[in-house]
Structures are given as C-alpha cells and as structure tokens.
Amino acid sequence: MKFETAGVIGAGAWGTALAQVCARGGMAVTLQAREPEVVESVTARRENEAFLPGVKLEPGVGATGDMADLAECDLILAVPPAQHMRATLEAFRPHRRPGVPVVLCSKGVERGSLALMTDVAAQVLPDAPIAVLSGPSFAAEVARGLPTAVTLACADTALGEDLMQALSAPHFRPYLADDLVGAEVGGAVKNVLAIACGVSEGMSLGKSAHAALITRGFVEMTRLGVALGGQAETVAGLCGLGDLVLTCSSPQSRNMSLGLALGQGQTLHHALAGKRSVAEGMESAPAVRALSDALGVDMPICAAVDRLLKAEITALQAIDDLLSRPLKAENA
User: Fold this and answer.
1) pTM for the model
2) Cβ contacts of residue 30 below 8 Å, gap of 6+?
3) How confident is the model over 153-158, as a mean pLDDT?
C-alpha cells in the first residue's frame, strides 16, 4: 500500500514536526489546527509561529481548520494532547473513509477511563487499522531534520511495513514492532518520570539521584507494561527506555522543565503560567497512579509525582518518602 496524502490532526509542535516528516517522505500533507492563527501562519508565512517558531515548513505542508478537509487523505496521524484524543477522533469519525489507517502519536493514559490511546481509538473507530508511533524525539529537532529513531508499532505486519516506508524520511528512522501496548506504556509513563527527574534537578540533588530515578523509573514502566500485556523487550527499546532517557535528560522536555520549576520551589500555577504546550505527564500522572493501583503494580515514583502535583506532599517530602521505603532486593 502506497500513501500519497497524509492528514495530521493536531498542529502543536509535535504534529507540525510529523507533518514535516510526511512531506519529506514525499506525501502531500494537510495539517489540521484548532487555532485559526496557526492556519493563517502556516498558510501565509510557512511557519507555525505559535508552537514551532523559527522552523520553515516544507512546501508539501498545508493547513486547515476543517476536519472535512482530511476526508480524502490516505493516512491519518492523530496528534492531539492525550486527554483530547477521544474528542478528536469523534470529531474526525464522520469524515474518515473505511480502511484508512490511523497512527496514534500522543502519549498518555486517559483520565477517568484509564484507557490507553489504542483503547480509545478502538472504541471510537472500531474498524480502523491502528498503529502507534513513539520514541525519543524532540519536535524542534525532528522538524529541522536532525537524526531521530522511533518505534512504529502495528499488529498487522504488512500494514506496519507499508507505514514504516511511508514515515521514513531523511534522518527520521522508524523501527517496526508489533507490541502496541508496550509502545504506549513507555510513552505515557516516561512523561511522569520526567517530572520526577526535573524535581531532582531543581533541588540540586545531583547526578547520582538523577540516574537512580531513571533506572528505578524504568523498572516501574516495565512492570506496568507487562501487567497490561506488553512485552518487556518493547519497553526496553526506543519507545520506552530510549524515550525515558531523552525526556529525563533535557529541559527541552516540557515535563522535565515542569519538574525543574517545582523543584526550585515554584507552585504548579506559576510553573504553568504562560505555557501553550501541554506537559502530558501532569495529565497522565493521576491516571497512571490509578491504573497501577487497580492492577496492583508497585510504582512509587509515579505515585509520588501525582501526590506532589496535587499538593498532598512537598518535593522534599516526596524525596524523603522514596528514600525511607523498606529495603529490598533490586529485582524483587
């Protein structure tokens, strides 16, 4: 199957970067935005000034505010904030043609339902071929064409191979997997853990603490992935460990920068003031905690982040609580 036209739903930084990837791969791209000013900026000045300033867009990228303009696309990439995935797919449903694949590019767990994005898509678009794109990637770097490798998870191997070819572009390399759950869990949990690492950096707790949070956070991520039916090997790949290392290592990460502000003593309100982009970990933390509790999966770092965001504990109390847990074997 050859894809010639792609619709990208969601014109934030990541959606815009993926539109660039699709255009570089040879597809004509329609970027759907909720904000009229984004449509105008992309159309008139070839730049998403609101969410990805300073990056000139490929000639093959166009913009629209109307979902109906995506009706003839061969391929759809869904890139809204995770908590808006359900409403976004419901808005697109009247315009989708049967058989058109939908690639889910948002990372998170839906609050309330505790559903992964694949579960949401299965409920809203039950007959749609679904894939998941996830991995270590900063939008600005991808948009500028810097080298990036990601995981593309699809249960249908033949479709996955076609999508892998379509989404492959100069300096953007997808690796194929068949474990959608593992790919999703990695992307969702790493955002929560990045907040924890930001807090550690903000409190100047040192690189040893940072390394411990990444390593023990990876254990939590793997536990949840396996409990949901995913494969530990998937979580150990680009979409899990790779994304975790990137997101926890740079203030370019919205989630780490949020934690950094909290660790420096800012309130959540002040840390979020003036930000247009969403820190997905803030939204996913309560859902990840509730999901782990429901499954009986021990995830103390993620739970501490949720409690911190809810102002149930301070950053210092969160650190003290984690360090005072009963001693045990590392692989218990």
Assistant:
1) 0.96
2) 5, 6, 7, 8, 62, 63, 64, 69, 70, 73
3) 98
Token pair recorded at residue 286: 């309560």
HSE of 300 in the Cβ direction (CA atoms, 13 Å)? 12
Dist CA 325 CA 303 (whole Å): 13
190 as an active site residue: the answer is yes
Beta strands 130-134 and 148-154 are antiparallel
3-state secondary structure of 32: strand
Cα radius of gyration rounded to whole Å, the chain = 19
Residue 279: per-residue pLDDT: 83
The one-letter amino acid at 232: A
pLDDT digits (tens, 9 = 90+) for 174-194: 999 999 999 999 999 999 999
Which is the catalytic residue, given 56, 107, 190, 310?
A: 190
- Take residue 64 and report the two structure tokens written for it: 């629209």
Q: What is the pLDDT of residue 277?
A: 74
* pLDDT 10s digits, 75-97: 999 999 999 999 999 999 999 99
What is the distance between the alpha carbons of residues 217 and 189, in angstroms, rounded to a whole number? Answer: 9
Q: Where are the alpha helices (DSSP H) in 25-175?
A: 36-45, 85-92, 117-124, 139-143, 157-167
Measuring CA to CA, which residue among 173, 111, 185, 178 is closest to residue 145? 173
> Per DSSP, what are the bridge partners of residue 9?
32, 78
pLDDT at 314: 95
Q: How confident is the model at residue 276 (pLDDT cuts 50, 70, 90)?
A: confident
166: left (phi over 0), alpha (psi -120 to 50) or beta: alpha
Residue type at position 199: V
Which residues does residue 52 pair with via DSSP β-bridges, in sequence order? 48
Specify the higher pLDDT residue, 111 or 331: 111
